[in-house]
Amino acid sequence: MGAWLTEMKSTQSEFGDLSREKLGLKLKMARRAKGLTLKELAMRCGCSESLLSKVENGHALPSIKITHRLVHNLDTNITWLFDESIPHNEPVLREGQRPVITLDYYPGDHAGIRIERIIPYREGHMLQSNIHHIEPGAKSGEAFVHEGEETGYILAGEVVLELDDVTYHLAKGDAFCFPSDIPHSYSNPGTCTASILWTCTPPTF
Q1: Number of domains in the chain
Q2: CATH of the domain at 51
Q3: DSSP of 74-140
Q4: Which among 194, 131, 183 has a CA at the least distance from the CA of 160?
Q5: 75 dihedral zone (left: phi>0; alpha: psi -120 to 50; beta)
Q6: Mean pLDDT, to the nearest integer, of 81-102?
C-alpha cells in the first residue's frame, strides 16, 4: 500500500485539469485494497476489462456513468477520486482558479464536457456545485441514478435534459430541480457551448 501511495503522489499534477495518471493510480489502489481483479471489477461495473486496464494505466478516462459504478463497487466516492492536489481553505475562488475535470466518453457519445468546480472537494461539505460546460453534440452518456436532490440553471446555450422518459428542451435562463433517483442525462443539441450551474446534495461527484 505504501508503494502505491508513493507512486500516486509522484504523479499528481498542478492545480487544473485532471491527470489521467493520477486517476488511474487511485483506481488501481482502491481496487487492490478491495482484493478485486480487473476482470471482477469490470463485470461488476458492466464494462470491459480492457477499458479498465486503459484507465488504470492512464490511457483513457471513464464515462460519468461508469465512474459512478466504479466508486460504488470500490466503496469510495467520486469526490475522493477527483480530489485536487492543492487544498482550498479560502471562501473565494477567482475566475481561472477553479479546478476543471474533463472526461472522455464511449463511442456513440462525444467528448467535450468539462466540469468546473464551484465548491472544491473537502471533507464535510453538504453541497456540491459545478458548472458543466457542454460542447455542441456532447452528451453525458446513459442515464444514471444516485441518492439526493439536484438543481440547475442554464447559464448559456441549449440543453436537452432527460428525466426518466420525459425530455425537456432548456435554454439560457431556464432552471430545473429533481430527485436524483430519477434516471437522468443531458446533452447539447445546439451549435455553441452550453453551460449549466449544477448543484446537488449530498455531494456525489
Answers
A1: 2
A2: 1.10.260.40
A3: TT--HHHHT--SS---SS---TTTS-EEEE---BTB-S-EEEEESS---TT-S-EEEEEEE-TT-B-
A4: 194
A5: left
A6: 72
Instruction: Tell me the three cell numbers of residue 103.
Output: 472526461
The predicted pLDDT at position 65 comes to 75
Classified as helix, coil or strand, 197 is strand
Among 50, 81, 112, the domain-final residue is 81
Residue range of the domain that includes 150: 100-201
Which 8-state DSSP code applies to residue 157? S
Euclidean distance between the first and final Cα of the chain, in Å?
25
Same-domain pairing of 72 and 127: no
- Give the pLDDT of residue 67: 82
> Distance (Å, rounded) from C-alpha 41 to C-alpha 192?
38
CATH number at residue 185: 2.60.120.10
0.70 surpassed by pTM: no
Distances (CA, A) of 87 to 84, 122, 123, 202: 7, 8, 11, 20
Mean pLDDT of the chain: 79
| DSSP β-bridge partners for residue 26 | none
Q: Give yes or no: residues 65 and 154 share one domain.
A: no
pLDDT of residue 5: 31
133 and 180 belong to one structural domain: yes
